[in-house]
Amino acid sequence: MPDPLDFTGKVVLVTGSSRGIGAEMIKAFGAHGGRCVVNYVADTQGQNKADAMNVAQELTEPLVLECDVTQPQQVEAMTKQIQAERGGLDILVNNSGIISDRTIKKMSMDEFESVICVNLIGTFVVTQKAAAILRSGGRIINISSVSGQMGLFGQANYSSSKAGIIALTKVSAREFARQNITVNAIAPGFIDVGMSKGVPQETMQSFIQQIPLGRLGEAREIVDAALFLASQMASYITGHVLNVNGGFYMG
């Protein structure tokens, strides 16, 4: 019986895969035979590039590409390079995202727009430009959040961006179906990695008390959801939002 999680020969791009859940995702796809594209955005200290190269060391013949997902020209250049060097794309995970919490009364326009730009517009731009190189039977997986489903305090920008990703996922699922490409979203809850690390301990304990399973999620549990949605096991699932939140939200 063939392994349903065998991605041998499949070209996989995970945006924002230099660290955190994105890094764990691209390494997991690589471990299952995927031909991996690691993406990072340049920063003045060069830390993102260093992190991306460290991730690449754990992969076989990876492609490491610098690209700001909010810049259409850079995204188009990235997709053209993937086409030239890998012949196309099979799996796209729109993972790039930032957070900048503040109450509505105190939030600046720049704080609101910057989060919307990276999280929502970035997802749209990469999806739009990748459409030209995605092969039939491909997969698009967008990373939303429980925040986009519930609207969490101090996250007017983040919640709005993640709610927008859910709507974008459903529209994309309808439009890409004619190419036999499925589009789904994962909505993580509170995961013990990345952005959740910046939440004050007292606040996090309050959230944990509201989670039926009584704990934070692990990065591997988001990764496993992505592997499933990218696999043949999910071939008849599209336009779906997969909640991975321990029961924190059940809508």
Fold topology:
Layout: E1 11-14, H1 20-31, E2 35-40, H2 47-56, E3 63-66, H3 72-86, E4 89-94, H4 109-130, E5 134-143, H5 146-150, H6 156-176, E6 182-188, H7 201-209, H8 219-230, E7 241-244
Parallel strand pairs: 1-2, 1-4, 2-3, 4-5, 5-6, 6-7
Give a brief description:
With 251 residues, the chain is α/β, with parallel strands linked by helices. It is 42% helix and 16% strand.
Descriptive account of the structure:
By secondary structure, the protein is α/β, with parallel strands linked by helices. Helix content is 42%, strand content 16%. The chain has helices at residues 20-31, 47-56, 72-86, 109-130, 146-150, 156-176, 201-209, 219-230; strands spanning 11-14, 35-40, 63-66, 89-94, 134-143, 182-188, 241-244. A 7-stranded parallel β-sheet has the order 3-2-1-4-5-6-7, sandwiched between helices. Strand 1, helix 1 (20-31) and strand 2 (35-40) form a beta-alpha-beta unit. Helix 1 (20-31) crosses helix 8 (219-230) and helix 4 (109-130) packs parallel to helix 6 (156-176). It is globular. It starts with 10 loop residues before the first strand and ends in a 7-residue tail after the last strand.
